[in-house]
Design brief:
By secondary structure, the chain is α/β, with parallel strands linked by helices. It is built from eight helices and seven strands, in the order H-H-E-H-E-H-E-H-E-H-E-H-E-H-E. The chain is about 35% helix and about 25% strand. The protein binds S-adenosylmethionine (SAM).
Length: about 220
């Protein structure tokens, strides 16, 4: 059974192993060379706003032939991801504490991602906070640009009106081909791949919306 991580045990672990706190490696000034970073030329999948990383950690465990990169702007969550990645000796997973959109713009080379996952992105329902949303007119073309042709953006969302706004933004401001879009039964996702947020949603019987968009070749 996996060790339960509490804030206290994490602090203790991090104090013992200061290396794991270094979530922002030095020298990342320009675009990342993925093959240099991972030491191989395997495909790279990126999750923006990974939270505690349940989804991406499980992918990294199951598929050592692919590389996984978790962007999360909350330090406490980066630490959890790092701790679990170190504990499970995952050499194909990295995390980076940064704003995800800025990271993609500044650090991620165009046409370099084999998948981009954005799950349960904060909806910022108040009108005056909308500019904080990850999905905006100017951000969706960035998401498209970073994907390799033939690869997908996958979105999951619990907040229905924001979901349909995302659907409209992708239609209007990208050439991504929407393969699937709408409410789904979350039992479709294997429990081990559910995100932390999704585990809670499933327990509450909440609605889940899912979108899959393909970058045309
Ligand atoms: C509602 S939580 C969902 C977390 C995770 N995707 C899940 O399903 O369990 C949204 C997460 O996105 C992160 N986040 C929000 N905006 C972000 C941004 N611009 N860049 C990076 N992370 C972001 C938040 O810190 C938070 O951890």
């Amino acid at each position: 059974m996996a060790t339960r991580i509490t804030a206290k045990s994490l602090e203790k672990k991090l104090a013992l192993d200061p290396e794991t706190i270094n979530v922002e490696p030095e020298g990342w000034e320009g675009p990342i060379n993925w093959s240099e970073l991972f030491g191989n030329v395997n495909p790279v999948e990126l999750e923006l706003g990974a939270g505690k990383g349940r989804f991406i950690l499980e992918h990294a465990r199951r598929d050592p032939e692919r590389n996984y990169f978790a962007i999360e702007r909350a330090l406490k969550y980066c630490r959890v991801i790092l701790y679990r990645a170190c504990r499970d000796n995952l050499t194909n997973l990295r995390t980076y504490m940064h704003d995800g959109v800025e990271f993609l713009e500044k650090f991620c080379p165009d046409a370099s991602l084999d998948a981009l996952y954005i799950f349960y992105s904060d909806p910022w329902p108040k009108k005056r906070h909308r500019k904080r949303r990850v999905f905006q007119e100017h951000t969706v073309p960035i998401f498209e640009r970073k994907l390799k042709p033939g690869c997908k953006l996958i979105v999951k969302m619990d907040y229905e009106s924001y979901f349909w706004e995302i659907d409209a933004l992708l239609h209007e401001h990208t050439t991504l081909q929407i393969l699937e879009s709408g409410e789904i039964d979350p039992v479709r996702f294997e429990p081990a791949f559910r995100t932390n947020f999704e585990v809670k949603l499933c327990a509450q019987g909440a609605k889940v919306f899912y979108l899959e968009a393909l970058k045309k070749a």
